[in-house]
Amino acid sequence: MSQEAGVEIDIPLQKETKINDFTITFSTVNGSGSATANTTLLRTLFKMGIPVSGKNIFPSNIKGMPTWYTLRLSKEGFLSRVEQDDIVIAMNPSTILREIEYVVPGGVLLYADHISPPLTRQDIHVYPMPVKQLVKQSNTSAKIREYIGNMVYVGVLSWLLGIDLEKIKAALAFQFKDKASAIDLNFNMVETAYQWAVENLEKTDRYKVEPMNATEGYIMADGNTAAALGSIYGGVQFVGWYPITPATSLVETMNEYLPMLRQDPETGKNTYAVVQSEDELASIGMAIGAGWAGLRSLTSTSGPGLSLMAEYLGLAYYAEIPVVIWDVQRVGPSTGLPTRTAQGDLIFAKFVGHGDTQHIILIPGSVKECFEFGWQAFDIAERFQTPVIVLSDLDLGMNQWLSEPFEYPDRPMDRGKILWEDDLDKMLDKHGGKWGRYVDIDGDGVPYRTVPGNRHPKSPYFTRGTGHDEYANYSEEGEIWEKGLMRLEKKFNTSKNFIPGPVIDTMTGAKIGIIASGSADFAVIEARQEMKKESIPTDYMRIRSVPFSDEVERFVFDHERCYVVELNQSGQLKQLLTLEYPEKAVDLKKLAHIDGLPLTAKWVKESILSQEGEK
Amino acid sequence: MTEQTNVEQSSVNAIGLTRQDYKGAPTTLCPGCGHNSISNQIIAACYELNIVPEELVKFSGIGCSSKSPTYFLSRSYGFNGLHGRMPSIALGTLFADKTLFGIGVSGDGDTASIGLGQFKHLVRRNLPMVYIVENNGVYGLTKGQFSATAEIGLELKKQGRNPYLPVDICMEALVANASFVARSFAGDPKQVLELIKAAFMHNGIAVLDIISACVTFHNKEFHLHSYGYGKAHEQPLHDVSYIPARKEIVIDDFREGTIRGITLHDGSHILLKKLSDDYDPTNRWHALRMLEEAEEKQLLVTGLIYVNPEYPSMFDNYNLIDKPLNRLTENDLRPPRETIDAINEMMF
Which terminus of chain B is more exposed, N or C, with fewer CB under 10 A? Predict the structure, then answer.
């Protein structure tokens, strides 16, 4: 009974089975517990060795609004979003009409049978699922019926695609940390649904999964978890933070792992402090205070929070205080789309603060890089005594990604030019008894600093956001002011050689270049492969930091034209490149787009081809 | 002992420092500003308490008051932060080494207007530090606007009449569960000194609201924050004297029978001489009522309004390692190499 009686079926002829290369979209109501079911399936497919990625499209709401979760299986290992729904699981009556429309011809609609959808499509396979009936039979309490209902689709889908139930059970065991009662409760529901499907459904579609070994040696993690762990391995000591979507899970994950990784083995006491502040004005203040006093200090936020931090970031830039800010970007301006992804804070982050301010920016493009930049950000902030803003985004931060494992830091911590008592003595001996907080001794723009707690009588100095001279004395002298800013610029330029350079990948015969950053990478990688198939080779540079290094400059000048691909409206990366290389302004092509969803390879490819066609 | 040796002994404190070692840069505030007198008492308190200047950190926000940390303790670290946001800087800093003394100097604009949120949250967390508000009811640096502590009906040259009731900083502190609240008057140096000393010995936030007359923009004889009004309407709750525990001496000008001892966290004592028999500085409810009644009578009540030495300090909530956090090295901070495999194992 795969179709309702009386509906004329006209499904395109599809003999070929589609294996490990399609998408599954789950349409549910938020707060209904679908995350457990979806994660279970994600884990199962990953454990079956199939490259898989999961994206959660969710509302800014606690309960009752539509939520979508899309799993993409890609035997070739592509992880970006695709604009198509092969299989749709419809659990939400309010969105069913839309979902029916979205299914590709020849695709599959699985629906909870209490919804009774209007069957407007004759070119898709439709399977009902008696969710309510099966849940009722399971004799579970009313309280958990809604949650357990999602396990019905796990069971039916397992039947449909040929997923081994033992693998589902293993995923549930991982999810519930081997708590037998929870595993059994969920797994029984999966089994019941599977059995019901065996007895009542007949498979007419062509989708199947088969075990592979393409995920061996890989992990599955979200960028916020990676950032949290990277920060812990970077020795984070102080966190001042305020909850905001989509950054919240970054510090929450830190709170989960810090007790395990960062307690003194002898005393069981903490080598860190995490303080939830009253707002972002205070988060950044606390983090700057701690950074000033020599702690590896961090705050995490998203666009609106970064706006609130602007004034203190300006002070930290001018007073030269190390601090790390993770901005997990969402869609702005204003409150914007709080649960949708974007790369729209780049320009703001670069210049945040009034007056002549500019900041070092790191832009991780993968989960593994979130980990790496997690620890590297502290080295860079302390080396250059300045804020380092790390721009992640919701897609990278909150979704689960297939990733190479985290690697232990490959070099010792760099605490920068910090002077404790003995260091200061040596410094004073060498420089005739004089030390100045803002004196550029080494000619690289980076001065030496002491921190409160240093007991040397000559170590203390007065830190201020107001004008100061090399010895940290208050000054309103124009000449001194300008000299100070010029040294800051020199310091900023010195940092070019220390921060992560671009990742460049070339193809033989390429005439055009593509430039992107962060999570735009996934769509670009796939688009380049697609274009290559059509004999359009491209070179690609993924920018990982600001200020731009010489390599970035070379790439820009080595290409006749470059398409700058980004997830915002105004082409912010392109703007920064244009500012830096005005001679190449006309050769930098804006490829920017923002609808709150991650970029797709299809859009990247079509946009490039369309602009190329106009030539 | 000859007179000569007496002079020599009194010129250095127990750690061998002179008063000069506690001085700051020359003040740039208006001559006669109450803030300068408070700076002098901070210097005196630190000298008398034998505080090592390098072990103290000064904090301030923005405003006339916030400029004053430059004018005391040049040998201490200082951080002049943003308007109303000194508390967050102080919090982050003091976590780096909890053996440091912290002193914040703020004003009525800095604390009661833009900084009211950070002030109350700092108080609520009970971070150990001295928090002085140099309260003059007016904005000096921007040349004479009303602050949130200005009394209703106050008239200023360019502002007209203030239509709003004032914020009472001591009451705000109490409502936020401050563990030490005092008020004084900059023209009463003896009381200011004793309160600052007691504040330094308190293991928690110590809020001192010090009425400090603005000689330039706000000094009409009949106004609450003026020098004349302060002197005439001051009503000390009790004399306060701080006596370090290591010197078992009793100041003989305390009147017998009215002495009240409070043990501070570090074992030192403050002795309170009550002027009014029914006032108990350990009772928060009485303190609030006293302030309310004083406000009705338009009285400036000075002295230690409330103290609770037992309230856990912020640091007590963080199970921190004994060694100062900022002295930890890579060995303490980077988890060992062998942990990374276990972590990767946990990622699905």
Answer: N
